[in-house]
Amino acid sequence: PPFWVVIPAAGVGSRMRADRPKQYLELGGQTILEHTLDRFLDHPQLQGLVVSLAEQDPYWPELQCAADPRICRATGGSERADSVLAGLQVLSGLGANEEDWVLVHDAARPNLALDDLNRLLATLADDPVGGLLAVPARDTLKRAGADGRVQETVDRSVIWQAFTPQMFRLGSLRAALMDALTSGVAVTDEASALEWAGHHPRLIEGRADNLKITRPEDLTWLQQRWQS
Ligand code: CTP
Ligand code: MG
Fold first, then answer.
1. Which ligand is nearest to the CA of 81?
2. d(CA 11, ligand 2 centre) in Å
3. Atom of ligand 1 nearest to the CA of 78
């Protein structure tokens, strides 16, 4: 199906402890953000793409893609949900309809495979709610007590890690994010806002190497794979 994209890229990357936000760190000759954008820009079903940037962002104008007419900009906010909402606003201005599909994908997740993206789109094309790429838990999981000791082993077979892209309809995504923000509930991804609104997003198994760069060792891992 045709789809729109929002790339939230307004975070500071505090856990990365680098000299700049992690989306502007280099990976194989390009910034992480440029790799992420490349995963979408040539897709035949792409209707439009918005990147949400921090209000003060000295790094974006230095990128070659800053002049790319296919990329629109929004000003992100203090929470990820604010950044995504700002992106949705710009999409509406571009002519996106309330029923249109929007994919939200982390700027810091540069290794999305085209077959994962296409499977997400194909699986959800007629879905009433939408869903997300996710990976089943691999390790044995423990619930910890305050004393740092195991209280119990959790049933791994029902636990998934939520990845992106996350794919929802523009109108319901906006409404869910706004409700979640005004209610003060923590939404660390788009699906959790939809869940708060009572929906059950579909989990679509994706590749584990579509990882989000969060800590320095994540970038080291990806740099090693990139070369081989
Ligand atoms: N993001 C955003 N606006 C925010 C916070 C996060 O657009 N207010 C984006 C980040 O740029 C990133 C994605 O959301 O691409 C996932 O967030 P995360 O991995 O938490 O990135 P940061 O918030 O930048 O990192 P940290 O939490 O370590 O500070
Ligand atoms: Mg964060």
1. 1
2. 6
3. 8
Question: Cα–Cα distance between 212 and 166 in angstroms, integer?
Answer: 14
Condensed to tens digits (0 to 9), the pLDDT of residues 194-209 reads 999 999 999 999 999 9
C-alpha atoms less than 13 angstroms from C-alpha of 25 in its C-beta half-sphere: 23
Spatial CA neighbour of 75 closest among 65, 88, 92: 88
Please tell me whether residue 154 adopts helix, strand or coil conformation.
strand
Q: Which residues of the chain have pLDDT under 50?
A: none
Q: Which ipTM value was assigned to this complex?
A: 0.99
- The answer for residues whose C-beta is within 8 angstroms of residue 20's C-beta and 6 or more apart is 13, 59
Tell me which residue has tokens 């940037």. 53
The answer to whether 35 and 41 have CB atoms below 8 angstroms apart is no
- Other beta carbons less than 10 A from residue 92's beta carbon: 15
pLDDT, tens digit, for every residue of 138-167? 999 999 999 999 999 999 999 999 999 999
Whole-structure pTM over 0.80, yes or no? Answer: yes
Residues near 85 by beta carbon (within 8 Å), at least 6 away in sequence: 77, 174, 177, 178, 181
Q: How open is the CA angle 192-160-122, to the nearest 5 degrees? A: 80
Structure tokens at 200: 């059950």
Largest CA distance in the chain: 54
User: Distance, CA 215 to ligand 1 centroid (Å)?
Assistant: 12
Evaluate: CB of 212 within 6 angstroms of ligand 1: yes
Q: Measured from the CB, is residue 11 less than 6 Å from ligand 1?
A: yes
In the chain the domains, ranked by start, together with CATH numbers, are 3-132+161-227 (3.90.550.10)
